Amino acid sequence: MITCPTNVTSNNYVGFTSGIIQVRTDHEANVATVTWDPPIVTENVSRFNVTSSPYKSGDEIPISTIHVITFTATESSGDTDTCNFVISVIDIEDPICTIEPPSYMGSVEMGQQNSTINYIITVRDNVQVSSIKTDCSFIDIGNSGQEYIVDRAIEEIDSTGTFPIGETMVLFSVVDNASPNGNEGTCSFGVTISG
Is the sign of the CA dihedral 143, 147, 150, 154 positive or negative? Predict the structure, then answer.
């Protein structure tokens, strides 16, 4: 008879709910490293072989709602016994955005009320960034207006903005593709335009 391990560990342990062990992804990765003690086999035979499938202790397990880890003990006679446990790897890591330059000071040309500046937004995530957006109406993110669809793990986005005289703080929100709800991060930069 085989008994599944009860000591399943990860540096990213989240909890145990409805028979499912939940762990979050490793930092800046789309997998979680999970370890467990060997299963306990109690048989009246001296020789048996134990395998685990599809993962073994110490493996990097990808994001998924459910991974069923099955242990099989096989006696030398060919008799087998199995047990299993369930792991869910979730992404709760917020995406990151940065802006170059982080702030801008400039002035308008003679007779003008606005100044156009160029900047680069870098977005990244351990899995995949879905989109970045702002409520600032005079921002153009990657020639797409106020919202830009990313759909990759990292991207540098050339952007522009036409700013009025005065101080403006622009806030961006970036969302990843985590399920069921995307994780959200923010970044901002300040612009000062003198007349």
Answer: positive
Burial of 119 (0-12, 13-18, 19+ CB in 10 A): buried
Assess contact for 138 and 162: CB atoms under 8 A.
yes
Using one digit for the tens of pLDDT, what is the confidence trace for 163-184? 999 999 999 999 998 866 789 9
**Token representation of residue 137:** 């109406």
Q: Where are the alpha helices (DSSP H) in 18-128?
A: none
- Say whether pTM exceeds 0.90: no
Q: Over the stretch 49-62, which tens digit does the pLDDT of each residue have?
A: 888 999 999 999 99
- CATH for 96-194, among 3.50.50.60, 3.30.160.20, 3.90.79.10, 2.60.40.10? 2.60.40.10
- Residue where the block lists tokens 């351990």: 126
Residue 104 is encoded by which pair of tokens?
């801008």
